[in-house]
Amino acid sequence: MDYYLTMNSLPFQVKLNATTGGNSREYSFRSTHGINSAETVRPEEVLLLKSTDLESTSAVLNVDSRIGAVGCVLGDEVSAGRLMMTESRARQSLVSEFNRRKNSIENAEVMLTSDLKDDLLRKYDVATYVPRVSDPDHVVRQKIFEISEVLRDNSQLYIASDKNTISKFQGFLEQFGNVQERVQGDYRLLEVDDPGSPRDDGFLQTKMVSHSMKGVEAEFKVIEGFFSARQMNAVEMLGREVESDEDNKVLDLSSGFGGAGIFASLLEDVNPVFVDRNDYMKDLISKNCRKNNVEDYDVYTEDGAENFDTASFDLILYRVMPDDDEKVVQDDLENCRRILRSGGEVLVCHERDSKVPNYLKRIFDDVEVKRREVNYQVSACVK
């Protein structure tokens, strides 16, 4: 994982006092836009820290580490053991690593992954998990199953969330073992002792969707809850405006299931580069490229386009969804301009009634609306 975050890119400071191993310590964390509850340690995380029972030599897995607060405190708790923080989102993974270093948690590491079962090579004594609010229920179930697969015998699994969220998973958790409950205000923690694994591991819900553009038919595998008709509409609007020479370098940024880049390849015979912040998309894009006979491509889980060199691309395809964080969108557009070659073009699909047109006019030399539909439009931006 490339490490480029600085204090300047992490405007929020979060403090937490905790006692580990009999010693009281103040932890200091940094956070940023685009992370849920970025300016605080969440109540369910505090409940989890109060409830875990750890030996100093334990091996601990902290899933969906967010800003790394839980992982850092538990890392101190297992001073003679080890701790692994995992994240499926690139931004949260980078922030967790920044805070691990900032708080000098030397026995911990951070891994960017959406596949715990295959990517974690060790077994753990304890696992902690605060489900991400935006994750679909079936993704949470899949993560719980994968956690159970990397736990040792006589282990513990702790899951904390608000009462409404965690009630949806109590029956599912009871398939793994005996469940104990702790309540604090509006939040609940469930502890599963020595969790086994149910026979069925097919919890991740996917489906196939087809789309035709300019006489070319493509078929895509998508993950329920991470896909919407608005995404396919953005693919259609962007794809209709793509014109590129075969040798041009093309980036599909915030690519989702990869539809825009794949259609660019099928229609213009380019070799696309895909980037998305959600690691679940990485394997999905690769499968969709193979499904549609796109052979030459690269796919990355990254926090936007920060890590690409200046003047790297001739064409960038970028979609802005209504719930995208405004500061994240502005940062993405600034980086698009930086990595765009002179004379290159960024095609941005965005809501017509939004602040995006103002951002584009401020950042780019020339902006032209290429396509309009009911609520969305595609703006072409030239450097």
Task: Give the number of helices.
Answer: 12
Radius of gyration, in angstroms, nearest whole number:
22 Å
Regions with little confidence, pLDDT below 50 for 5+ residues: none
What's the domain count? 2
Structural class: alpha/beta
CATH topology of the largest domain: Rossmann fold
Helix content: 25-40%
Please describe the biggest sheet, giving its number of strands, its sense, and whether it closes into a barrel: 7 strands, mixed
Number of strands: 18
Secondary-structure element pattern, one letter each:
EEHEHEHEHEHEHHEEEEHEHEHEEHEHEE
In CATH, the architecture of the largest domain is 3-Layer(aba) Sandwich
Oligomer status: single chain
- In whole angstroms, the N-to-C terminal distance is 30 Å
CATH first level of the largest domain: which class?
Alpha Beta
CATH superfamily of the largest domain: Vaccinia Virus protein VP39
β content, as a range?
25-35%
What strand line-up does the widest sheet have?
Answer: 5-4-3-6-7-9-8
Query: Judging from the principal axes of the Cα atoms, what is the shape?
Result: globular
Structure explained in plain terms:
With 383 residues, the chain is α/β, with parallel strands linked by helices. The protein has 2 domains: 7-193, Vaccinia Virus protein VP39 (Rossmann fold), CATH 3.40.50.150; 206-382, Rossmann fold (3-Layer(aba) Sandwich), CATH 3.40.50.150. 30% of the residues lie in helices and 34% in strands. A 7-stranded mixed sheet has the order 5-4-3-6-7-9-8, sandwiched between helices. It has a 7-stranded mixed sheet with strand order 14-13-12-15-16-18-17, sandwiched between helices. Strand 15, helix 11 and strand 16 form a beta-alpha-beta unit. It is globular.
